[in-house]
Design a protein that fits this description.
340 residues, alpha/beta, Rossmann fold, seven-stranded mixed β-sheet, five-stranded mixed β-sheet, 17 strands, elongated, disordered N terminus, binds S-adenosylmethionine, methyltransferase, methyltransferase activity, transferase, SAM-dependent_MTases_sf
């Protein structure tokens, strides 16, 4: 039984989720075995909209699922399909809105409310109104990312909240919204590069040589040229008018797969946004890695129909690489490799 308390009680994840579990188990259908002891340490993984099956394949079904947030036992594992990771979330019992807000303020300064799975959002919104939230403005590419941590929280019921003060993304739910350039780039694909450079905290420097494969209509080439890099831009289709003539852009109407390291020579960055089967991209990348011909890679792995988990695992196994599902990725992952 819940007692009246002057201060909200911060229960350990284990005991609180246990109590919550026993109170709510009749309404939960995600717990496979009711007798399974609950974990002492939890991690929450938030799937990008529409990609919960991909995420649960990586992290498992977890002990509790709230919409597209999956709570799993143990510390965080590397999960490409997690758009945000809630480290060590806590369960906090509270009696009033003020108490809940104070409890969250005690844990962290800025909070994002995750409420899309809640049937009634009113109480959660009243709590969130008392907190400092994520920056509401769109993020301007090239400016410093918010460096104060952004926590995430949600309601388990109207007197229990779940909160992680330590999330992997500084953007609410990992969803970075840029102040878009509606006139310069010829397609919205440029947002993927803006996002990856923002997350990496690194981008091509003026004068560096970039190979942009599958570049048409030219969003990525536009980003790279704007950064002052030199770009060998390759596609079978033409670039949008004006882009091929920009200073530093060398556009070639050729196949991406005909670009051999021995022909092009060493590059600082290799980019690929080519529409092709994942295994074809893997062969291309392997060829360049074996030749040691590129210092950094940013490549979109595009899935047609079913997600190709086998090839994902082969990309994942490449040392020093990362796999990300960007907020601007569709049915794709972005593979990133750097010499560090
Ligand atoms: C998603 S679009 C690239 C968008 C581009 N990154 C941008 O920012 O505008 C994919 C491109 O891959 C190109 N492509 C497909 N197969 C190719 C190949 N074998 N060689 C070169 N380009 C190819 C297509 O012509 C298409 O322009």
């Amino acid at each position: 039984m819940r007692k009246n308390r002057d201060k909200p009680e911060q229960l350990s994840s284990y005991s609180a989720i246990s109590s919550y579990y026993f109170a709510m188990r009749s309404s939960l259908n995600r717990i496979e075995n009711e007798m399974t002891p609950l974990p002492r340490e939890l991690t929450g993984y938030l799937a990008p909209d529409g990609f919960l099956p991909e995420l649960t394949r990586e992290v498992g079904d977890g002990v509790l699922r709230l919409g597209r947030l999956v709570l799993c036992p143990g510390p965080a594992v590397d999960a490409a399909w997690a758009q945000n990771v809630w480290h060590s979330p806590r369960v906090i019992a509270f009696e009033s809105i003020a108490q809940a807000a104070n409890a969250l303020k005690g844990l962290g300064r800025r909070w994002a409310l995750y409420d899309e799975h809640l049937r009634n959002r009113g109480r959660a919104k009243l709590i969130q109104e008392r907190l400092s939230g994520p920056s509401p403005k769109s993020f301007r590419f090239g400016t410093t990312t918010p460096n104060s941590p952004l926590g995430s929280w949600t309601l388990l019921d109207d007197r229990t909240l779940l909160a992680s003060a330590r999330c992997s993304s500084p953007f609410a739910h990992g969803d970075i919204q840029f102040l878009e350039d509606k006139t310069g780039p010829p397609s919205r694909a440029y947002l993927k590069l803006w996002e990856v450079f923002t997350l990496l905290g690194q981008s091509p420097k003026p004068g560096q040589l970039c190979l942009d494969l599958g570049s048409s209509p030219g969003g990525w080439t536009w980003v790279l040229q704007k950064l002052g890099a030199r770009v060998i831009s390759v596609d079978k289709a033409p670039l949008a008018p004006g882009l091929a003539n920009l200073e530093g852009v060398d556009f070639r109407v050729e196949s991406a797969f005909a670009q051999r390291p021995e022909k092009i020579g060493p590059v600082d960055w290799l980019f690929s946004d080519v529409i092709c089967y994942p295994h074809r991209l893997l062969s291309l990348v392997t060829q360049w890695l074996e030749a040691g011909a590129a210092k950094n890679y940013v490549c979109t792995i595009k899935f047609q129909g079913e997600t190709d988990f086998e090839t994902i695992d082969r990309f994942r196994a490449i040392p020093n690489s990362r796999l990300l599902h960007l907020a601007h990725n569709k049915h794709e992952l972005t593979w990133v490799w750097g010499k560090g």
